[in-house]
Write a structure and sequence with these properties.
- The protein is of the alpha/beta class and about 300 residues long.
- It has a domain of about 200 residues: 3-Layer(aba) Sandwich (Rossmann fold), CATH 3.40.50.720.
- The protein has nine helices and 13 strands.
- The longest helix is centred in the N-terminal third of the chain and has 22 residues.
- It is globular, with a radius of gyration of 18 Å.
- The structure holds nicotinamide-adenine-dinucleotide (NAD) and uridine-5'-diphosphate.
- Nicotinamide-adenine-dinucleotide binds next to helix 1, helix 3 and strand 5.
C-alpha cells in the first residue's frame, strides 16, 4: 500500500483522483484550504479508513510521510484565480516549493497538474509540448499562467539539481461532475443556465475554441503518468483533441438539456485565448497508448445528469 498526498484534493479533479487512488488500495491524504473545493466532494470518501482530510494552505509548509504527491492545489477557474491574484501566484509558486521540498526530503515521486495555459494565446496549433507558448506576463490571467509556468521551472530545477523524481502533466480544459456550481467555467455555466432556462452567456463572438476533456480520461492519464519510469518527467499534454467553438458548445448543451434558453453575447474578458487543442502524440507514446475515450456529447450527458441531481 502506498501513502499518497493529493493537494487540492477536495476540488473538482482532486476529488475524482482521491476516489481513484483509494479504489487502487492506496492510503490517501487529501489536503485543501477549500478556496474553490468543498468537503461535499469528498464526503463519501470519509467512510473509507484509508482516507484522511486535512485543511491546509499549500503556500505554507506541510509535512507528512508519503510515497507520492499529486500537486493540484490552485484555483482553476479564471473567475476565482483573479479574485486574489497574489494568492494565486503564492499558491502555485510557494505551493510548488513546499511540495518539492517535501518530495526531496522523503524521496517521494511528485506530479504537477500544470495547464494548457502555459501556451497562453497560442500561435502554433495544435499545441505540442515543445512549443514555448505566447503568454502575457502582466495581464489579468498572468497570475495563473505565469504561476504555473514558474511551478514547471521549479519542478525541472528540483529534478536537475536535487534528483527529485518529477512528473509534469499539462491539463487541457476538463469538465465533469463535482465542478462547483458557481465555478464560472464555460461548461458548468452553460449547463446550469440551460437547466434553468436562463440565457447562455457567450463571451466575445463565440468563435474562440477549446478542446474539452471528460474528467475520467484525465484521471487515467495522470495515474499512468505517475507510474512511468523515473527518467520520464514530461511535460506531457493530457487533453481531448476534439476542438469546439464556444458557439458550438452552447448549441450542444441547449440540445442535450432540451432547454428553451437563448444565447446572449457578453464582452470578452482580457487575454482570452482564441484557440486551444492538444497534440497528444507524446501521451499516446509514453502513457501506454492512453487516449481519451469519452466524446464531448457523452461526457456532457454525464455532467448534465450530475447537475440535475443537485
Ligand atoms: P478546483 O478549483 O476545483 O480545485 C482546486 C482545489 O485546490 C480546490 O479544492 C481548492 O480549494 C484548492 N486550493 C486552492 N488554493 C489552495 C491552497 N493555497 N492550498 C490548498 N488548497 C488550495 O479546480 P480543478 O479544475 O479541480 O483543478 C485542479 C488542478 O488542475 C489545478 O491545479 C488546475 O490548475 C489544474 N488544471 C485544471 C484544468 C481544468 O480544466 N479543470 C485545466 C488545467 C489545469
Ligand atoms: N466563456 C463563455 N461563457 C461563460 C464562461 C466562459 O463564453 O459563461 C468562454 C471564455 O471566455 C473562454 C471559454 O469560454 O473563451 C472557456 O472558458 P473557461 O473559463 O471555461 O476556461 P479557459 O478560458 O480557462 O480555457
Amino acid at each position: 500500500m502506498k501513502q499518497v498526498l493529493v493537494t487540492g484534493g477536495a476540488g473538482f479533479i482532486g476529488s475524482h483522483l482521491c476516489a481513484r487512488l483509494l479504489e487502487e488500495g492506496n492510503d490517501v491524504i487529501c489536503l485543501d484550504n477549500y478556496f474553490t473545493g468543498s468537503k461535499a466532494n469528498v464526503i463519501p470518501l470519509l467512510r473509507n479508513p484509508h482516507f484522511e482530510l486535512i485543511r491546509h494552505d499549500v503556500s505554507k509548509p506541510f509535512v507528512a510521510e508519503v510515497d507520492e504527491i499529486y500537486n493540484l492545489a490552485c484555483p482553476a477557474s479564471p473567475v476565482y484565480y483573479q479574485i486574489d491574484p497574489i494568492q494565486t501566484v503564492k499558491t502555485s509558486v510557494l505551493g510548488a516549493v513546499n511540495m518539492l521540498g517535501l518530495a526531496k526530503r522523503l524521496d517521494a515521486k511528485i506530479l504537477q497538474a500544470s495547464t494548457s495555459e502555459v501556451y497562453g494565446d497560442p500561435k502554433i496549433h495544435p499545441q505540442p509540448e515543445k512549443y514555448w507558448g505566447n503568454v502575457n506576463p502582466i495581464g489579468p490571467r498572468s497570475c495563473y499562467d505565469e504561476g504555473k509556468r514558474c511551478a514547471e521551472t521549479l519542478f525541472m530545477d528540483y529534478h536537475r539539481q536535487n534528483k527529485v523524481r518529477v512528473k509534469i502533466v499539462r491539463v487541457f480544459n476538463t469538465y465533469g461532475p463535482h465542478m462547483g456550481t458557481n465555478d464560472g467555467r464555460v461548461v458548468s455555466n452553460f449547463i446550469i443556465q440551460a437547466l434553468q432556462d436562463k440565457d447562455l452567456t457567450i463571451y466575445g463572438d463565440g468563435n474562440q475554441t477549446r478542446s474539452f476533456q471528460y474528467v475520467d480520461d484525465l484521471i487515467e492519464g495522470m495515474v499512468r503518468m505517475m507510474n512511468t519510469p523515473d527518467d520520464f518527467t514530461g511535460p506531457v499534454n493530457i487533453g481531448n483533441p476534439g476542438e469546439f467553438s464556444i458557439n458550438e458548445l452552447a448549441r450542444i448543451v441547449i440540445r442535450l438539456t432540451n432547454s428553451s434558453s437563448r444565447i446572449v453575447y457578453r464582452p470578452l474578458p482580457g487575454d482570452d485565448p482564441k484557440q486551444r487543442r492538444p497534440d497528444i502524440t507524446l501521451a499516446r507514446e509514453r502513457l501506454g497508448g492512453w487516449e481519451p475515450t469519452i466524446c464531448l456529447e457523452e461526457g456532457l450527458k454525464k455532467t448534465i445528469a450530475y447537475f440535475r441531481s443537485l
